[in-house]
Amino acid sequence: MHMARTSSNDPPAGQSLTDVLAGPALTPGTGTPAFSPLYQQIKGLLLQSLQSGEWKSGAAIPSELDLAARYRVSQGTVRKAIDELAVENLLVRRQGKGTFVATHSEQQVQYRFLNLVPESGDRASEGPAQRTIIDCKRLRASADVARGLTIRSGDAVLQVRRVLAFGGVATILEDLWLPAGPFKGLTAERLRSYDGPMYALFEAEFGVRMVRAEEKIRAVLPDEQQCSLLAVPTGTPLLSVERLAYTYKDTPMELRHGLYLTDKHFYRNELH
Amino acid sequence: MHMARTSSNDPPAGQSLTDVLAGPALTPGTGTPAFSPLYQQIKGLLLQSLQSGEWKSGAAIPSELDLAARYRVSQGTVRKAIDELAVENLLVRRQGKGTFVATHSEQQVQYRFLNLVPESGDRASEGPAQRTIIDCKRLRASADVARGLTIRSGDAVLQVRRVLAFGGVATILEDLWLPAGPFKGLTAERLRSYDGPMYALFEAEFGVRMVRAEEKIRAVLPDEQQCSLLAVPTGTPLLSVERLAYTYKDTPMELRHGLYLTDKHFYRNELH
DNA sequence: CAGTGGTCTAGACCACTGG
DNA sequence: CAGTGGTCTAGACCACTGC
Question: Is residue B106 part of a domain?
């Protein structure tokens, strides 16, 4: 078996890291073992603890020294693993306090996944969004929805429709599709009674943390129903935002289609 | 003067880093000196060398060991500085070869700042864009343009208009505004004769490297002229993409307004 | 004050590239 | 094979938090 480390720097005997790893991690199709740095393996273990729910949303994970002892590696190595998870927004470091599991239920990151901002650029000025749940239905996945969520066509899904308004002006119309399994018990009433971002509710009620998402954006003209829900005249161009949101391990957990009125707002993006 | 390091770990006497730094780096408004880690200061020096043109686009910068010797710090410290610049896409690391100044003139990153992708998701399949320069005029900055580029209203700017087509289908109509100073001598002919991304030409001809950009995206309806240039019927919704591109030191160097036809393409974005 | 993350060093060794 | 970036360790000390 290929090991990441075979030098004299190996930790003293005991339950070494390689003992708890699954296998040699071969690269399929090549005869050469895939080199996997120790910190990447640690990262995988941390990810596992996150996914398994060992550490709850918003809670502190063990200190770097504790983790180093647990995995029998140096602090620097777990640091590097945590660094990457922090960059990916799965963990949040707070100097002097500890390292915490990222969550959608904090004021400062309320809109982590919403790139629509008011013309002024200042979200605080327009105040919080007014959320209106239109309905929440259980139905069978269409081919499109099934493909997005990588489930079988016809599998049970929940469809949520809602409108977001800012300063009393309806601005976003959204349809969401969720796999019925992980979100069993979700109702329109529950959605209406929850005061906070939907992803925060998903964390709290269903233990589902959205970690990453991809969006496909187009310009479209709304149909009659969409016009009436957003209270805009026909012929008003809207942003169509199709989002696929993933939880850990790149598992798609939500398909979302949004229509954004970009009259007084715009979709902000940063390029690097 | 506040120094980042005052411990016994200080390097031996000689031209230490603090000798070459400008000042104490106070935080305005507070009486406490701003703590600036060594690697951040190194990062600033590297940035300076990039900005001054000491290292050309695409060229290798000195090795980590060389830089460590130059600045009299450990390899790990310059490593951390380079790490950040690599994350920001200012530098590119290549194991075994060296660290290079990022450039827009490489095949693999041709479309670093263009988020429009074909429906298939595969850019290679549609081949390279056909670029048509419509004109390149020298004129006086309007209030809007001046505000974006943080110059004075009425200052000389260059305006470029072009159309990009994919597979023969006009898809993007763009207007660019550039400060006339840094881009002195730019003509429509020069733009037409250059085979490659415009930002690559900017690097090669004017030493201007675009490093970062912000985009504001809206859905709009094109006017008559825009319709004819893109060969779409009136009433076709288009993506309006307003980009402000920056070079080093957060200096805005280009204002760009694009209209994207999202019929067979979409604007792709990743959320974290 | 103890405990946390953050910085810095010095040195060893590994993986990769090219002559 | 020498030179580059990449990993890992061990240990010291700094900055920040909260009791």
Answer: no
Give yes or no: residues A85 and A129 share one domain: no
CATH code for the domain in which residue A84 is found:
1.10.10.10
Is pLDDT at B239 greater than 50 in this prediction?
A: yes
B269 CB neighbours in chain A (<8 A) are 115, 214-215, 217, 269
B141 to each of B103, B133, B208, B247, how far by Cα in Å?
Answer: 29, 20, 20, 20
Q: Contact B162/B132 with Cβ under 8 angstroms?
A: yes
Q: What is the pLDDT of residues B100-114, one digit of tens each?
A: 999 999 877 778 999
b (16+ CB within 10 A) / e for A50-72:
bbeeebebbeebbebeebbeebb
Per-residue pLDDT, averaged over B94-98, amounts to 98
Q: Which residues of A touch B214 (CB under 8 A)?
A: 268-271
Q: Of A71, A207, A251, A104, whose CA–CA distance to A81 is shortest?
A: A71
**Residues A234 and A206 occupy one common structural domain:** yes
Task: Print the domain residue range for B178.
Answer: 116-267
User: Cβ separation of B271 and A113 shorter than 8 Å?
Assistant: yes
Q: Is the pLDDT of residue B23 over 80?
A: no
Structural contact between residues B187 and B136, judged by C-beta atoms closer than 8 angstroms:
yes
- Global pTM value: 0.90
